Structure formats: C-alpha cells, structure tokens
C-alpha cells in the first residue's frame, strides 16, 4: 500500500439503495421452533414446488423427439421398454454415508467412525423417487455426471428387464427468473460490494495486523488518493461467517467444580476483538454479518442472526445488520444470495471431484442451494416451505470459507447472468473479493504482513 497522501479535496463514500426481497429473506428466519414434524415434509414440499419447474424444461427438451417420449407422472407407472420421462428427487445409496438408523442399532460400545472427507465408493447407486416409490437409474449418462441426494431432476429413458430405468438424457429446473440488469463497461465511478469470509479471530491462523489492514482499507484510511477513492466506491460489506474461533473451554481438575457460568473456562477476547473491528468498519460503511459454523449461532441451517448483545459497540450503529446464513440481499437492484460454506462443504462429500466452483455452479442449475439438507446437512424441519429453493436467479451468488478463490459468470437460457464467487478464508489467505455492481466483474484484494510477499 502507498503512503498516505494529503489532499484538500474531501472523498465521500458513495451511497446505494437497498431493496426488500420479501419472503425470499424472511423464509430463512425461523420464527417459532417446533421439532415435532418429520423431515419427510421438507422433501415432499421440495418435490411439489419444483416438479413443475423441471417438467417445463423437460417438455421443452423432449416433447419434440421422434419417436415421441411420454411423460409418466408416477415412477411406479413406468412401462418396460417404453420411452418416457420422469420427474423426481434423487436419492444416493452410499454405504459410507452416515446413517442414523445404523448408528442406533449398533452396539453402543463400538467406537464411532471418524468423519470422512468423502462418502463416495464404487458401489454407490443413484435412485429417483416420488410419492409412489423409487427406481434405480443406470446408463452412461448416470455414470458420467454428478448427483447428490435431494436434487429434483427429470430423466429420459426406459425401464429395462431388471426393473431399472436406463437413462439417456437428464434435465434440471435451470436458473430461475431474474430482474433485468444492464451490463456495461467498467467505469471509475462503479460501485462495489466487498465479500469477506473466515476472519478466524482467535484461531491458529489469525493475524491481527492483517485484520487491522483490512479495517483501514474498508474505512479508507490507507493508501493514497487513488486507493481512498477506490475504497469510497465500496457501498456494502458482507461478512460470510466463521468470524470468531473460540477455543474450547479448559477445565482444571485440581479446582473444585463450579455449576453455571464460570468466567475462567471461557475466552472472550475473540468476541471483543471482533466487536472493535466491526465498530470501526460500521462507522464508515454498511455491514451485513452472517453467522458461520464456528460463530455463536444455531447449528442447523438456516443459521439465525448473531445476537447483537454479543457486540455491544457495534450494535449502536444503524449501518450494522445481523442477518441469517444463507442470506438474500438487494443493493441498487442487484440481488445477492450467499452462504457461509456449509452447503458446498456437504455436497463436496458426495462427489469425486475437488472442484468446488463447479459444485456451486451446479446448484444454480439445480435451482437449489442446499439439496443435501436434511439428509446429511443439518437443517430446520420446515413444513410447508423449502427456503433453499432459488425462486429467483441472483445476480451475485457467493460461498464463503472455501479453500481458494474462484469465480465464474453463469449464463442462463433466458438471458440470466449470475456471478458465482468462491470466497477463501481471510485468516488463511488474507484475501477478500470485490464485485462490481454494474458489470458483475470480480477482483480480489490481498493483505499480507509477511516480508517475503509484496
């Protein structure tokens, strides 16, 4: 960064308007907690709401075939040897996938298996199911593609002698409708959104000096006039989870046990540091704070907003917004959708590939950001809604706390454009992303206190 320059001209931060997305964001807020219902309701709701979306794409793709392909409404009504297409929910039969029924039937003295980075195995099978039943899917198309439990999909093929459905083509819901966005060439006065994840305050990789540099960058207190002008174009900051890493409570066996709150067993420093950081940033720009896996929030998704009482300095600012994970937002008519990484981390376990950007792009085509919930990703048992369905195609879709930065502009069949951004952990890489609200171009800014780096 350049040395601070003095300039008589005042540099003012640009402003942006925020929009109300109604039920898109409100559906992530769990107003009453009721765990009496079964998770089957969520699968049923997902299939009911997405069946017509997939069926529309299937008819466009397959109704003009010769010979004619027939749509069979119920999977169990498929006739052997008849070319037809079905719509249902994918179920992956994977012997390495955790199964709660297996766990409770085993001997309680058997040690639990360690967490696996992948559930994949050569014996895995793909099934399609609906209200009537399920059928096993076979064929080259099934072997060569990526499938995860919970995705609503259409398949074209026929039933073979073994009772399996041999697939020759597949289709998904595709990107949802999107508000028109005028894409133009980059201009010096373009507004940007700063996307950050994995501050990791209190963790082993935490570097206080890099956090200070980030704070000064976002508030425009670093660099020369040019850098400060660029910082003034940042109209919103989104922090996508894992901001705090609190060490586990330590217990001293030599001391007498205390019941209730024991100040000596908890470390408050990470929260205090984070509060001070947010206070500085919120004094200059609007901040949307999402919880993550390591933050003080609910374990199940959608994670509820971090309680403002934990951030006494920051909560006094009107520019501070504690939001859910996942989160919908709107800035200058540009819609954002993002999460803190749990959804892609879970999908990663279902596939052989290590390309997380590809997985995120596929969720856009599936029109569902968390298909593996509730199978292997913990979530709230919703009854009549599935808030993870992408009823609209966002202009910016980000995933936090990934191993490295990656981005791709995804184009839809009806002119939709979605900028997919994989955000790396700031504590590990010192990197944040800036997205141009007018062009959807994305670039990174890196901070380092290591002498070996520039």
TrEMBL record:
It is an enzyme of class 2 (transferase). GO terms for cellular component: delta DNA polymerase complex. Residues 38-170 form the DNA polymerase delta subunit OB-fold domain. It is found in: Nucleus. InterPro entries: DNA_pol_a/d/e_bsu, DNA_pol_D_N, DNA_pol_delta/II_ssu, PolD2_C. It catalyses: DNA(n) + a 2'-deoxyribonucleoside 5'-triphosphate = DNA(n+1) + diphosphate. GO terms for biological process: DNA repair; lagging strand elongation; mitotic DNA replication. Gene3D superfamilies: 2.40.50.430, 3.60.21.50. Pfam families: DNA_pol_D_N, DNA_pol_E_B. Its EC number is 2.7.7.7. It comes from the Eukaryota. The keyword Transcription regulation does not apply. Residues 193-407 form the DNA polymerase alpha/delta/epsilon subunit B domain. GO terms for molecular function: DNA binding; DNA-directed DNA polymerase activity. Keywords: DNA replication, DNA-directed DNA polymerase, Nucleotidyltransferase, Nucleus, Transferase. Belongs to the DNA polymerase delta/II small subunit family. This is DNA-directed DNA polymerase.
